[in-house]
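Morning run. Coffee first, then this:
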Amino acid sequence: MMFTFESYRRLLDSILECGYDVHGIEKIIISRRDGFAPKGKFVAIRHDVDYFPKRAQVLAAIEAERNLATTYYIRRKFFEDDIDTIRKIAEYGHQIGYHYEEADTHQKAPNLQIERDAVGFFVGSLLDLDRLGFPIKTVCAHGNPMTDVDNRQVVHLLRSDDGLDRLAFTYDRDLIKAKISDQLVGDASIDITGKDFDLYIPDTGRFNPKFNLKDRIDDCPLSGLSNLDHLKRILTGGEYRRIYMNMHPDRWSGNWGTWLFDFGFDTAKNLAKKLIGKSSYQGQLVGEKAKKHHRQVMKSLGEKSDETENPRS
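And here it is:
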């Protein structure tokens, strides 16, 4: 049975037994920047920590038992509410990234604009995390399926020629350049494509691509998983040598009661995705990658893209 701590142990053991190395996605991004990539067969793992940092700590310990280091992307509120847990994850040797959601947050508030306030708050968050002892090197967008906003727009906007002019607050530009522009290597939800990996396997929708609205990698085949035997067939098939996996710690649990709650919650959320059909994004899509990602999602859902129409505000 999937989504238990024991099944996660067996999942990792299956990867290692099949001759694959395991890396954090941050290591892949940094290695590529430095002009080299890991050799041989490998699985890159990232964890988007959406709700329960304590569960992330358990997965981090399981990985550390096997001398593995992966990447954990943490939402802002957990750096404020559960900093000791995050520090423990880092002590295990794992890479800590920022799981940002400023576009989602600020599109709901009155009199705030994504192009100004969201970018400013994103920069402010990175500066705050640096002061807490977490010099963030990579980030990854949070993909809330119940909204029609693409959080990745914040990074696209910041990277534009006039990105610093979009800030909501007055910052020292030299400080921003030193702490963010130079330090921030990449975005695990933007800068990874099919050129980097042969297959992407996220646990979104409980490993069911039918309920995956936003967790995609451009030009990279997407696969679900039915069980661990299915994973072993993928690993031993020889077709995929570079595999990228995203596993949310919130779905993995250590007892039956929690597992049943998670199963019911995910089932309800998947049904809501199907009924509500959230699939388009508010605001102007910035950059060809964002537009291409949007078209792919719309196509997979059998819906017509409206990105050329006037965006809603």
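Confidence is low (pLDDT under 50) at residues 279-284, 307-313. Good start to the day.
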